[in-house]
Specification:
The structure is a single chain. With 114 residues, the chain is α+β, with helices and mostly antiparallel strands. The strands form two sheets. Strands 3, 4, 5 and 7 form a four-stranded antiparallel β-sheet that branches. A three-stranded antiparallel β-sheet has the order 1-2-6, with no helix packed on it. The protein is flat.
């Protein structure tokens, strides 16, 4: 009697799984009709106090022009944008910037160079 009680939930779960359509159980496949992106440096940023350091590495053939943008937290502190830096294939660049006080947000912009 105890064996049938412990098998009841397992049997119910198995019945539910077997009744699902096969598409619901199959892992999602990548769509072969759209090519993978082949542009854009991978960037990582680090914020310490009021200083920002970003490293951008471009694994692709096309040159990526990157810029560091910093938004400061205080209304009187001037937001800054770095000079654009061309990141050629297999190249890593370092971008730095700062605010006088706290930093609200940091982001990197990318531009394809032809």
């Amino acid at each position: 009697m105890r064996l049938s009680r412990s098998l009841a939930p397992v049997t119910a779960a198995l019945a539910v799984v077997l009744s699902l359509p096969s598409a619901a159980l199959a892992p999602a496949r990548a769509d072969d009709s759209t090519p993978a992106p082949t542009f854009g440096a991978a960037c990582r940023t680090s914020v310490e106090g009021s200083h920002v350091v970003a490293y951008c590495h471009n694994p692709y053939v096309d040159t990526d022009r990157v810029r560091l943008h910093i938004e400061c937290a205080r209304w009187w502190d001037i937001d800054t944008d770095s000079a654009p830096v061309d990141t050629d294939a297999a190249m890593t660049v370092r971008l730095t910037g700062r605010c006088w006080k706290e930093i609200r947000s940091v982001w990197i912009s990318h531009q394809r160079v032809r």
